[in-house]
Amino acid sequence: MFAAATKSFVKQVGDGGRLVPVPSLSEADKYQPLSLVVKKKRCFLFPRYKFTSTPFTLKDILLGDREISAGVSSYQLLNYEDESDVSLYGRRGNHIVNDVGINVTGSDSVAVKASFGVVTKHEVEVSTLLKEITTRKINFDHSLIRQSRRSRKAVLCVVMESIRTTRQCSLSVHAGIRGESMRFHFMDEQNTRGRDKAIVFPAHTTIAYSVFELFIYLDGAFDLCVTSVSKGGFEMEETATFALLYRLRNILFERNRRVMDAISRSQLYLDDLFSDYYDKSLSMSDISLKEGTHIRVNLLNHSIPKGPCILCGMGSFKRETVYGCFQCSADGQKYVRLHAVPCFDVWHKRMK
Fold first, then answer.
1. pTM of the prediction?
2. What family, per the record (predicted)?
3. Could you say which of 54, 57, 149, 276 has the lowest number of CB atoms within 10 Å?
4. What would the pLDDT profile of 196-215 be if each residue is shown by its tens digit?
């Protein structure tokens, strides 16, 4: 009966789907601000989630003994009085009957009357809490953390606001059948015993609450998921590994791109250099065989192996040659390797 009344309250008050009804009167005191609850998806057939209370608060799963400084503000929300008819053939009606054990012989409906009176809303100062958690870490040795990490479907949530009654409240249920001109009339007016039930519960009872999910990182840091788009849970080791590999891939890709750009620029430079050489009417003998110029030699005759040309052999393709010049030096060697045509003449034109 209590669960039916809180569900009806949440359905009518709304709050964008963030409010969760308290499931039972015995657990109402476990849904206070900064208390922890576990959110778990039932199965793929049920889109809604199941929330389970815990005996812990946010402070209990944090390292250190420092209290959480974020305060809780409260204000009056509304005055709630409700009376509704529930069909016995629906799931909600069956739940009420099983919950309170009312006599439904000859009835097709039950009337539920909830008198909550003025209810208040108590909510955590979100901005203050967000600043504080930047310096706090999760204690992975806590039993609740260990159990939640083992379950892939479990998400830890912290209660951020609760709605409470301010006075002693009553819930009553009455069984009957729907009449055309009356809301209810009894099938047998002489036998009404067991058709009415009522409960009274004390003031300051929590009837609904809302939560923020927690996303916990491998290093113990955590975030509050303040929007419905962000999802809570635990950072998995494989997720962190994939993220690291993805970053390394991007670094290698960028480095490879820079190398290819450098090679492309060097190739363009060589193309311009060689085209400038061929555009002129000079032959190999115009420079290399003139008197006083450097002499082209076969390096194999001097026991020097074949190797890359110093001018065109530094790109992506290692162009090798056996020719060179002893009158020039580079990279600590007393000779340079140069193709006979056209690198030998192009090199010495630049030297001049």
1. 0.59
2. Belongs to the gasdermin family.
3. 276
4. 677 888 889 999 999 999 99
Examine the domain organization and report whether 325 and 219 are in the same domain: no
Weakest-pLDDT range from 21-35, 157-171, 301-315: 301-315
For 223-291, the DSSP string reads EEE-SSSS--EE--HHHHHHHHHHHHHHHHHHHHHHHHHHHHHHHHHHHHHHHHHHHS---HHHHHTST
> String of b and e for 2-21 (b: at least 16 CB within 10 Å)?
bbbbbbbbbeeeeeeeebbb
Pair type for strands 320-321 and 307-308: antiparallel
Are residues 219 and 320 located together in one domain of the fold? no
Confidence of residue 104 (pLDDT cuts 50, 70, 90): low
Contacts of 147 (CB under 8 A, 6+ apart): 154
Domain span at 305: 296-351
Average pLDDT, the chain: 77
Bridge partners of residue 124, in order along the sequence: 72
